Amino acid sequence: MMSTILREEIGIDLSGVVLPGDLVCPPRAAGLVLFAHGSGSSRLSLRNRYVAGHLNHAGIATLLTDLLLPEEDVGLAQRFDIGLLATRLEGITCAVSGMAQLGHLRLGYFGASTGAAAAVRAAAMTGGRYRIDAVVSRGGRPDLAGHDALAALSAPTLLIVGGADTEVLHLNERAYAWMSCEKHFEIVAGATHLFEEPGALEVVARLAAGWFATHLAGRRGAEPATGEQETS
Fold it and tell me: What range does the domain containing 121 cover?
């Protein structure tokens, strides 16, 4: 068992495509959260790193990866190819599930923008290869995952949207209605799409940390908490 925090740059080989990732694993981590960034962003996103830092402080491991190589991340077609992004996220999940220091941890996804759609689809379409125990979307586009994926999603899911991000707010309301899993909708008052307002991103980090701490407690293979819940 690790007694000090692990910080490591890793490369994940998916059939010849090597995706870079930044792993942080606190001692006795309560779970592992994989980050899926939005279109035009990367694992170096300051907003995602801020949230990841809060999760690490709460004793949760994080892995920030790029789902596209720089030469692939060149246009809207690639950035909005949710099928490709979800497949890459699934591959990363399978890879970390087989790592000795991480394989025992329960898994969660944190998605932003189009990354939220990839997270929903990957979590819903695992085919039993692994289980995702929690999903959080920050200013995401879960609607882009499609009705079938949203309806099939079983992982407890938190949608966080800025109150001033009107269009995305409406799209999240539509996606929320299609979900039958345990779910919760949080609106950060006055926040725009990037949560740049003072204190807005801190609220996101606190909400995400609370959600993951609740749903990732315990080791993989242990029985999850019973009961279904739907709040709004």
Answer: 6-215
The answer to whether 67 touches 220, Cβ cutoff 8 Å, is: no
Interatomic CA distance for residues 206 and 80, integer angstroms: 28
Element (H, E) at 96: helix 82-97
Radius of gyration of the chain (CA): 16
- The CATH number for 162's domain is 3.40.50.1820
The proportion of the chain whose per-residue pLDDT surpasses 70, expressed as a percent, equals 87
Question: Is residue 222 domain-resident?
Answer: no
**pTM exceeds 0.85:** yes
Render pLDDT for 209-221 as a digit per residue (tens, 0 to 9).
999 999 998 555 4
**Do residues 184 and 158 make contact, with C-beta atoms less than 8 angstroms apart?**
yes
Q: Residue 97 is inside which H or E element, if any? A: helix 82-97
